[in-house]
Here is the input.
Amino acid sequence: MVGGGEGAFIGAVHRSAAALDGQTTLVCGAFSSDARRSRESGASLGLAANRCYADYTAMFAAEALLPAEARMEFVAIVTPNHLHLPIATAALRHGFHVLSDKPATLNLAECFVLRDVLVASGCLYGLTHPYAAYPLVVEAAERIRVGMLGTIRKVIVEYTQGWLAEPIERSGQKQATWRLDPTRAGASGCMADIGVHAFQLAEHVTGLCVTEICAELNRVVAGRALDDDGTALLRFDNGANGVLVASQICTGEENDLTLRVYGDKASLEWRQQEPNSLWLRPLGAPAQLLRSGGPGLGAAAQAHSRLPSGHPEGYIEAFANVYRNFAAQVRAHAAGARTTSGAALPVPGIAAALRGMAFIETVVAASRSAQKWHAFPEVSA
Amino acid sequence: MVGGGEGAFIGAVHRSAAALDGQTTLVCGAFSSDARRSRESGASLGLAANRCYADYTAMFAAEALLPAEARMEFVAIVTPNHLHLPIATAALRHGFHVLSDKPATLNLAECFVLRDVLVASGCLYGLTHPYAAYPLVVEAAERIRVGMLGTIRKVIVEYTQGWLAEPIERSGQKQATWRLDPTRAGASGCMADIGVHAFQLAEHVTGLCVTEICAELNRVVAGRALDDDGTALLRFDNGANGVLVASQICTGEENDLTLRVYGDKASLEWRQQEPNSLWLRPLGAPAQLLRSGGPGLGAAAQAHSRLPSGHPEGYIEAFANVYRNFAAQVRAHAAGARTTSGAALPVPGIAAALRGMAFIETVVAASRSAQKWHAFPEVSA
Amino acid sequence: MVGGGEGAFIGAVHRSAAALDGQTTLVCGAFSSDARRSRESGASLGLAANRCYADYTAMFAAEALLPAEARMEFVAIVTPNHLHLPIATAALRHGFHVLSDKPATLNLAECFVLRDVLVASGCLYGLTHPYAAYPLVVEAAERIRVGMLGTIRKVIVEYTQGWLAEPIERSGQKQATWRLDPTRAGASGCMADIGVHAFQLAEHVTGLCVTEICAELNRVVAGRALDDDGTALLRFDNGANGVLVASQICTGEENDLTLRVYGDKASLEWRQQEPNSLWLRPLGAPAQLLRSGGPGLGAAAQAHSRLPSGHPEGYIEAFANVYRNFAAQVRAHAAGARTTSGAALPVPGIAAALRGMAFIETVVAASRSAQKWHAFPEVSA
Amino acid sequence: MVGGGEGAFIGAVHRSAAALDGQTTLVCGAFSSDARRSRESGASLGLAANRCYADYTAMFAAEALLPAEARMEFVAIVTPNHLHLPIATAALRHGFHVLSDKPATLNLAECFVLRDVLVASGCLYGLTHPYAAYPLVVEAAERIRVGMLGTIRKVIVEYTQGWLAEPIERSGQKQATWRLDPTRAGASGCMADIGVHAFQLAEHVTGLCVTEICAELNRVVAGRALDDDGTALLRFDNGANGVLVASQICTGEENDLTLRVYGDKASLEWRQQEPNSLWLRPLGAPAQLLRSGGPGLGAAAQAHSRLPSGHPEGYIEAFANVYRNFAAQVRAHAAGARTTSGAALPVPGIAAALRGMAFIETVVAASRSAQKWHAFPEVSA
Here is the structure.
């Protein structure tokens, strides 16, 4: 693991997610840009002192020299955005698979570099979009894939939070500070932090691709260098339209990621706040409430849940699904297989990384323009 | 009443709403463009045969000749849009107050005519936007008026329905047919039917005015002459931004009008599907659920509810509030007073009518344009 | 109408409910035990002065002398419980049908008297249990009747309120005072006020009869002469068991009447706080949410709703269904028919009245006993 | 770990819960009564072969011989009920702390034996009641402890499931078979399986003790030797009354554990199906919705949650809180401290074990009796 020392939020989530199913073990880390804090973090996590590294460069070099059965198999990157590319490319060049936080890089150009290094390395690359790994999001995607919604006509995806309603970055709140700093976060604040999750979820679940975007980003709290709020209108490749709302200044909202997909045969609704429920509303018939662990779910959704119905699962479990799926990919890769066996699903990879970065750049450009619609760039993995 | 014969939906709602509080009595009507059906409708409603008129022209002429204590005091117009102006102006010219369904007229130009006739008549004009008359919408507006939300930053208003997900107008469904016919509905289908309610609700509750609009309207079901779906981005006069979604092709949605208003001190959320609840989410404190008839409500909200907490009220009661408020205005007008006494609130009038028509025309124009933002026209009552 | 003057709650509900559909017109009343207040109440309701009576005796005598087409057809009794019998029997003896608030009488013995007078009169008798007239309660009863739940195994019915959590009767709150006074309310407070609604709902929806009761009533707030809280365990005639909770000291609860019925094929859940929804949970299949006005409802439920789906209906509409149904019975009776035509359902009558009074007496007796189970008495209409 | 091999449900939950926070490591186990299956289970969990034992006797003997820093510190018992006592006492006699599934033993007499062995051992004993370890249940208990509800008047606790609505034990479903077998489950099925959770939750959160019980247990599905459904009326030591419903034949219910506590100042409501929410309803003020990770929570609740608000936590996280708290007790014990430091809360121990077994025996006895009320026995730890 690179990053995720004390004071970080997502590092602990990664570690719990990795530990949950007992398929991934944390063996080494460079947890902080400060060598001493890195070692202290590692020690508090029970790591051997010689595997708590001063920085990621030292870590990759040292681990690469270990015997195959002892060295780390993949690295989890949980740093601010601007470090994603250098760490990922260094790892790949040493032959380590990479599981990285989103967005993949600081900008789209960097992501093409990442793609090239990845292709040359022959290694695996995964992006942690945990929302797509909730059991009922898995079910939603499957229902759409087999045609139960008919032709998709409209997609509404929202991700609203309230934690940046006040200028907490001015008092040094660590999570807020780097996310609102263009040198560490990139060209966007809110869209790079949460909008890209909403975008990935919409494309992933529907199986559609956005082709045009109209966008308006806002810096609602005075003095911010990056957007903390925004809306994008979407056009999809099948002719469907969409609305994407992302905001971090929605006072009182927690982490309200909501996806609604309307087809001509049925619609689906899923909310992260009640993640174990999925509404299916068929045309002309009563709405059905699908539940995690409950009747009517497909094999994939079942495989992404651990408990019988009525035992709530949450964010860490969804994140653990990402780890379990990536571990399956790593095992399959080690065995020389091209695909995983069993019920594991592919973790979003370089294609999702490129589309995510293209999304961020397009909404930023569209927001600055007086023109309504902007083409989504071609990005191929 | 003009319109609202058999097969109509809203006429019966008007009649129930008028009857609920015993302050308005239906005394005459021209219920159909077919004279015989008009008489039959009137008879089935228990009206005297001589007050079931063949058409509105005859009705206004005849009623105007009755002694003051016997003749109707105001007319409710419940016809398709294209008839609103001729009926309203005829009524006003005969000295009858008008309570009209929305949108006020077929287009903005007509609405200016209406305004001029109204001013000349000295009569009252009300528009039935029942959603604004729910007790907890009254409460929401009051909370914002007194500053409990602080500065408003963002408004999200959605009105989604699924009843036009299929081309039911082709099989002659009466409600669908005229709403999708430009000669009867005007330049817009969905936005004129429900978008204008969402717009009125957003402006009314926040006390803000939209100044710019970016819009995209869609004809999702093939063959339609008017939009059945659309989204508008909004800019308000205080700098807040907004999103307005209106759609009638959202399979499985019923009549899901939802309003969320985010201020820098608190936010509010109200949904028509659970109309007796209002969420208030103060910054840094637990969310509160305000309930119709429950503790913490202001005098205005209390006056717009009839029952103790826990006894649900619905759409007809909200509509009845419009009638009760308009009846209070009529009584006050008859008494020579300029404002109503007691807890009655003004029914949206010609100013709301003009803004509603301006909204419809602006979203239509903005949707056809390649330019992102369009100024909202100046319309003054 | 007898009772329901100023300060009363339920009188206004009756009047709104009667007015809503235009099938019942208030023509006369004795609204208060004070003759002057009765006249004032009547005048404020727009009644002719000569039909605002000083008391019910005078009203029945005078109305009976009016020509058939002018006199009232039935009387609504909206007084405290101890007056139900004398008013109802006086009305019946004058040939007026009776629509009475529950519980039917002060005790079971009185109810047998009522039954005898009713039978002798040849008139109609209805009891206002409005909850059974919500569209989705109608649907629930129908689903069970046709066997969709299979064999019913368990019934949980709860009616919790918080309005008597404080001793408001000491400060003279009118609604509380008489409900806690044995001379006006009878042998029970909470069970006679709301428990009997829960009991009626459970028997009515399931079509089962309670055969044995174990009960515990409590006077939670010190100094009360009657119960303000209680629980009853139930045994039904098909072997099913049940739990009935009624309480008026549940701080923070509004009017939370909830019914859950579990069969071996499916279960149903309905809550008055969201009255337009009914959960159907089939064995081994996803739960379905049935909605008022929505797809999948039977003819009876549709006939008990007035609006398309998504337009909420509430308590007054349910109460209006009672009035509409009773009006249909009155019309059918006048026409010499034994049953109503069309979609009207029978209003609970003397059989329900007797069972309700038997319920109240049995829970009171069971609560006082050290023995667990008590037989439910045979009461036949 | 003893028990929890393949096919078991709760063993995997224990392992995930233990792993989540990295404070407990699974080092050995006797996972099955079949020695070979035990070894296979252990191997699949990554345990060294020499620490996968054929049975618990062998395990305790072998582990006790290991050096202190290598041997297991405590044993988790995840077997059917009849094995709890022999395993727990064997462990304690070898000096191992015990974390056991509920109910503690097969009957109350066994639990007294357990108590005596425990006292003699000087070891720690914990019982896995995970529901009490949800962050918002922690908050509920704390709010009551500091008096925010005032005097508690009524407690309603329900635990309804539908998984035994059909006789799945006849087709050999492993979870059902032993739970309905008196030799392995004890004198009760439903009450020993889930009723005891509801009982513990009610006493734990309120801080009150049940003093009298009236109960009715049912064998709803024909042919069962033990209850699959039941209700108990409760009397608490402060005069409050309560209702406890537990059922496993509630078709369509998942795992719906619900607790409502009514005081004279406020009430609380918590449901396991939405575990991150807690309703607080103060007398005469709007209801508040407290949320995991959200504003207004006390230090204890915060310490029992891992994520910011809006990131759902579930059953495994609650279970992990039990493990984390027990690990803190074990560490404190090793350090010679009598209480844990920091925010850890005590895991329910032998006192809860005794009261749980007394509850089961009392409801069974009360159900068989014709007498209404039965005293809850004195049991002291």
Notes: DSSP finds twelve helices and twelve strands in chain B.
